[in-house]
From TrEMBL:
Pfam families per UniProt: Reticulon
Organism field: Stylosanthes scabra
PROSITE patterns from the UniProt entry: RETICULON (PS50845)
PANTHER family referenced in this protein's UniProt entry, alphabetically: RETICULON (PTHR10994), RETICULON-LIKE PROTEIN B15 (PTHR10994:SF177)
Annotated membrane topology: Multi-pass membrane protein
Protein name in UniProt: Reticulon-like protein
Domain Reticulon: 56-152
Length: 180
């Protein structure tokens, strides 16, 4: 025990050990007690126990119920199947209006994307999503009147085109819209 300092020799000589270590412990020699106690003094903040003993064992993570996971997987599968069916109907031409709407929308996005970068489009989209609802809320009555007039004008123009190209207009025949 030549490498121990005086305070350690006094400590070991008095045989008064820490509360955590008793005489009937698993350590056989004074040297093992010394190593344990000197290691505890070198720990951060002089703690005697390990962090696991101080903080507790890690929390037990509960697993998800098997039925919940299976239900989520079935829901996602149904959603993907519906999406594939919709894409199939669009691609086969069964719903011409939806096909044309998707084609025009994707074409427009492609043309706009050729002029602007994706980050600029994202910024513009975010700006529109944040400002348009607030502007609409302030001028709701005026905007509703203008949109109603624009839709009425579009319906009149549509009826005139139908009459010009096909010789009749169902809306004009029913008297729903009166051309001016």
């Amino acid at each position: 025990m030549d490498f121990m300092d005086i305070a350690d020799r006094d400590f070991l000589g008095s045989r008064e050990y820490n509360d955590d270590i008793n005489n009937d412990s698993e350590f056989d020699s004074d040297f093992e007690h010394y190593v344990l106690l000197s290691a505890s003094r070198r720990r951060l903040f002089g703690r005697k126990r390990s962090l696991h003993a101080i903080l507790g064992s890690p929390p037990r993570l509960s697993s998800l119920p098997e039925g919940l996971v299976v239900d989520i997987v079935f829901s996602i599968t149904n959603l993907l199947n519906q999406l594939l069916i919709t894409f199939g109907l669009l691609a086969s031409g069964h719903d011409l209006n939806a096909f044309l709407l998707v084609t025009v929308t994707l074409g427009s996005i492609s043309i706009i994307d050729s002029f602007l970068s994706a980050s600029t489009l994202f910024y513009i989209g975010t700006l529109i999503l944040l400002t348009v609802p607030a502007a609409y809320e302030r001028t709701e009555d005026i905007v509703d009147i203008l949109i109603h007039k624009a839709l009425l004008e579009l319906n009149i123009r549509y009826a005139e085109l139908m009459k010009k190209f096909f010789g009749y207009s169902q809306q004009l025949q029913e008297g729903c819209i009166s051309p001016e």
